[in-house]
Amino acid sequence: MLALPLVFVDFSSEKVSVQENRMLAEYPKLADIRNKPETFVQEFEAWFKDSTGFREELLSLYKAVNKKRTNNIIQYTDGQYTFLIGEQGHHYFAYEGGWMISKFQGKKVLSDRQLSSMAAKLEEVKTYLENKGIPLVIMFCTDKESIYPEFYPKSIKRGPEPIQLDQITSYFQENTSVDVFNIRKALLEEKETYLLYVVSQGDLTHYNQIGAFFTYRELMKHINIYFPQITPYEPDDIDISYDKIGIPDVTLKSGFTYQKLDSSFFPDLDPNQFSTKKIIVYENINSDLPVILFFSDSYSSEDFIGKYFGQHFRRAIFIHYSNIRRFKEYINLFNPDIVILESAEREIRVFANFVIEIPELP
Predict the structure, then answer these.
(1) What is the C-alpha to C-alpha distance for residues 49 and 32, in angstroms, rounded to an integer?
(2) CA 333, CA 233: separation in Å to the nearest integer?
(3) What does pTM read for this prediction?
(4) How far is CA 119 from the centre of its chain?
(5) Ramachandran area for residue 250 (φ above 0: left; ψ -120 to 50: alpha; else beta)
(6) 166-196 burial, b for 16+ CB within 10 Å, e for fewer?
(7) 36 to each of 33, 258, 302, how far by Cα in Å?
(8) Does residue 248 contact residue 208 with C-beta atoms inside 8 Å?
(9) Are 325 and 357 in contact (CB under 8 A)?
(10) How many helices, marked H, and strands, marked E, lie in the chain?
(11) Which among 110, 111, 72, 104 has a CA at the least distance from the CA of 89?
């Protein structure tokens, strides 16, 4: 059974997959083996995946499998992502290579060298900003399994408490003077009342909008240390509605007082320099408010916490942290009153590498 698809590899050209509505990859040029070996390997892999024998039949079989069954050993892929099916139908994002499973099992996320290097750099950043009168806050957002470990597949052994994210947070709290926290405790306090991540449909890679609201509120507790005049929103200030499959939408009862600016608003900023996402800026109608600058990922997008900070600040500026090497340039350009560094739990290794590579600050 394993050999038959290999025996019947399709060598024809200009193939089309009706099920996927796309042209399939062509066989690479043999000359690239010598001239462009890396390109050849990538193109050969794409061709081989698209040309395996009985591919259309296997796709049909895959689609016929009921992905909602509660067998807690099964994995399935949805596009480029891999998911696990846990207890009571809960699905969990497993990431490429399944390293999030290892994290759930309690295996080390960051090396001692990464931790110490990152701690030293964060202390350097804090000192640099402090000399300018700008406070710094570091926030780590949690993966679903850190809040709902009880529904994770029982076949995968859970690591001990405290989990790796809590250990990493404690290390920074004990070895730096930086305001560093993660949102796990805050979300654990709310999980009995609210569903904070989707069960099996919708966005499985983030918290839902209710989880985002309580993340925002936890971050505001830290921001209020520096700006006590800002009044955070409470659950009574929001309306929660649900679509037909139970995914929540959160809106402010008071409505919004900000607009999104085009990146061309800043003439000194090249919009093509951002390697992952364009800059996002929200401007409030109240010009007396302070300015907040985020180096963050998708957990801080407008769909999640961004919309709340657009309400509280004259400008709320969001830049993906992959551009943090130009940290000093952005501080001088945007002149923020407070800086937030945010990373998802699953991306903390990538985040650490970018932070470590911030050029030396005066």
Answers:
(1) 19
(2) 30
(3) 0.77
(4) 21
(5) beta
(6) bebbebbeebbebbbbbbbebbeebeeeebb
(7) 6, 50, 41
(8) yes
(9) yes
(10) 13, 14
(11) 72
Instruction: Tell me the C-alpha distance between 341 and 339, whole Å.
Output: 7
The predicted pLDDT at position 22 comes to 66
Asked if 249 contacts 209 with a C-beta cutoff of 8 angstroms, the reply is: yes
Alpha carbons 43 and 245: distance in angstroms, whole number: 39
135 Cβ partners below 8 Å, 6+ apart? 129, 179, 225, 226, 338, 339
Determine the Cα–Cα distance for residues 29 and 284; give it in Å rounded to an integer: 55
* pLDDT (average), residues 24-36: 82
Alpha-helical (H) ranges within the chain are 4-7, 32-35, 37-51, 55-64, 99-104, 112-130, 144-147, 164-175, 184-190, 209-226, 307-312, 327-334, 348-356
Backbone dihedral angles phi then psi of residue 249, each to the nearest 5 degrees: -125, 135
Residue-wise burial string across 81-117, b where 16 or more C-beta atoms lie within 10 A, e elsewhere: ebbbbbeeebbbbbbeeeebbebbebeebbeeebbeb
Q: Would you kindly state where each structural domain of the chain is located, as residue ranges?
A: 4-62, 67-104, 112-356
Residues 144-167 have a mean pLDDT of: 95
Average pLDDT over the chain, rounded to whole? Answer: 87
**Which whole number is the average pLDDT over 90-117?**
88
Report the C-alpha gap between 22 and 160 in whole angstroms.
Answer: 46
User: Residue with structure tokens 């009342």?
Assistant: 193
Average pLDDT rounded to a whole number, residues 143-157: 94
CA distances from 295 to 15, 109, 217, 314 (A): 43, 21, 18, 17
Phi and psi for 180 in degrees, rounded to 5? Answer: -120, 135
